[in-house]
């Protein structure tokens, strides 16, 4: 396991960055989610329990921080630096490496979302590449997996750009927008990107 020596961590490539999500991000994060409510609605995770609700922002961050301490997750926000060096980078999305499995598997699942106004600019692929390289090289993981609803074309473009393999359909895999939804599963192993995923992504742009 990697332990506290490698978390928290901040990763950067140009103006795009990943840093740990914080309690004090609540106002900025909430405004961003509200602005993207319609954009996010078809892909929003939901609680399958009768009358179940999603956790509050504070409860979400508390749970993610606990998972990070337990070496089972990396909870990031995606940031972008603006033209002014006097202002901190703005939050433009979220990326979480979750379900980290050690032992003989050494794998994890990655999920992400990006502000609609920033979509299509290469931010999501860059963030995914940064996180994947950190997992492979920093943590010593072997496999990264991303699961996407077949209708989510914007997210499918991210894994296509990065060269994740399509491993097929998982029926009724996750509870999304109030129902069990099929997902396509994409994966990448460390041997497939010996040069690093970020290097490969940048060479293809």
Automatic annotation (TrEMBL):
Q: Which residue intervals define the domain N-acetyltransferase in the entry?
A: 16-191
- Output the Pfam families linked to this UniProt entry: Acetyltransf_3
Going by the UniProt record, its keywords in alphabetical order are:
Acyltransferase, Transferase
Listed under GO cellular component are: cytoplasm
Domain of life where this protein originates: Bacteria
Is Lipoprotein a UniProt keyword of this protein? no
Fetch the SUPFAM superfamilies from UniProt. Answer: Acyl-CoA N-acyltransferases (Nat)
InterPro entries for this protein: Acyl_CoA_acyltransferase, GNAT_dom, N-acetyltransferase
**Keyword Transferase among record annotations:** yes
The molecular function terms in GO held by this entry are: protein-N-terminal-alanine acetyltransferase activity
Q: Identify the PANTHER family for this entry.
A: [RIBOSOMAL PROTEIN US5]-ALANINE N-ACETYLTRANSFERASE (PTHR43792:SF8), GNAT FAMILY, PUTATIVE (AFU_ORTHOLOGUE AFUA_3G00765)-RELATED-RELATED (PTHR43792)
Family, as annotated: Belongs to the acetyltransferase family. RimJ subfamily.
The entry's protein name is: GNAT family N-acetyltransferase
Which species does this protein come from?
Arthrobacter jiangjiafuii
